[in-house]
Amino acid sequence: DQQVKQNSPSLSVQEGRISILNCDYTNSMFDYFLWYKKYPAEGPTFLISISSIKDKNEDGRFTVFLNKSAKHLSLHIVPSQPGDSAVYFCAASHFANTGNQFYFGTGTSLTVIP
Amino acid sequence: KAGVTQTPRYLIKTRGQQVTLSCSPISGHRSVSWYQQTPGQGLQFLFEYFSETQRNKGNFPGRFSGRQFSNSRSEMNVSTLELGDSALYLCASSTGTDQPQHFGDGTRLSIL
């Protein structure tokens, strides 16, 4: 049962434009969310996180938005750069866990066209 | 600061064999998690260790096991390998609960 879903396997965006990557989750207990970026032949790299007490978190060109009522989060990249081309994973967990158990989506492959 | 190190990077085995993968976490990180990544399935959680104790376990058969040593290094073992075990196995470490995990580059396991 996939508790975190990324319904768009791929996305193409022109350089300089905004990239919006979406993620939906089903477990209302989730209260900590993260985005990772993955290049081929490398492990995922942590990008940005948000806890459920917030609805927005920014870090440079990256902003994550959380809509708890819709169980939806999104990652905005502005402006998009060719180096942003990678696979992006969203992940979620909840504090009730006894430890670290993150649930990952299946990823969205972003291509930024120069 | 050295990152998460996984060895070996690539491994080829045949059905029925067993395999041991190794992970050295970032210095100071006591939590180590293991994931399996297959095409179209994303990252599937295997288990998490903290201070040599398994704290969480995903929905994988008992053929998948792990352990953590006193220096936080961790190993994952898969016995009686099946073709479906071919995957990228990723290790991640963190300082504690609900902190970002930092991943190694993975071990690519191929079963012939």
State the helical fraction of chain A.
under 10%
Structural class of chain A: mainly beta
Low-confidence blocks of residues of chain A:
none
What percentage of the residues of chain B does DSSP assign to strands (E)? Answer: over 45%
Number of strands of chain B: 11
Please indicate the percent range of residues of chain A in DSSP E strands (runs of 2 or more).
over 45%
Radius of gyration of CA atoms of chain B, rounded to a whole number: 13 Å
For this structure, the quaternary state is heterodimer
Question: What would you report as the Rg of chain A, rounded to the nearest angstrom?
Answer: 14 Å
Provide an overview of this structure.
The complex is a heterodimer of chains A (114) and B (112). Chain A is built from no helices and eleven strands. The relative contact order of chain A is 0.34. Chain A is mainly β. In chain A, the strands form two sheets. In chain A, strands 2, 4, 5, 9, 10 and 11 form a six-stranded mixed sheet that branches. With 112 residues, chain B is mainly beta. In chain B, 0% of the residues lie in helices and 54% in strands. Chain B contains no helices and eleven strands. Chain B has strands spanning 5-7, 10-13, 19-24, 31-38, 42-50, 53-57, 64-68, 74-78, 87-94, 102-103, 107-111. In chain B, the strands form two sheets. In chain B, strands 2, 4, 5, 6, 9, 10 and 11 form a seven-stranded mixed sheet that branches. In chain B, strands 1-3-8-7 form a four-stranded antiparallel sheet, with no helix packed on it. In chain B, strand 4 and strand 5 form a beta hairpin. The chains are: A mainly beta (114), B mainly beta (112). The A-B interface holds A 2, 4, 6, 32, 34, 36, 41-46, 49, 89, 91, 93, 95, 97-107 and B 4, 6, 31, 33, 35, 40-45, 48, 50, 55-56, 58, 90, 92, 94, 96-106.
Descriptive labels:
heterodimer, A: 114 residues, mainly beta, 5-stranded antiparallel beta sheet, 0% helix, B: 112 residues, 7-stranded mixed beta sheet, 4-stranded antiparallel beta sheet
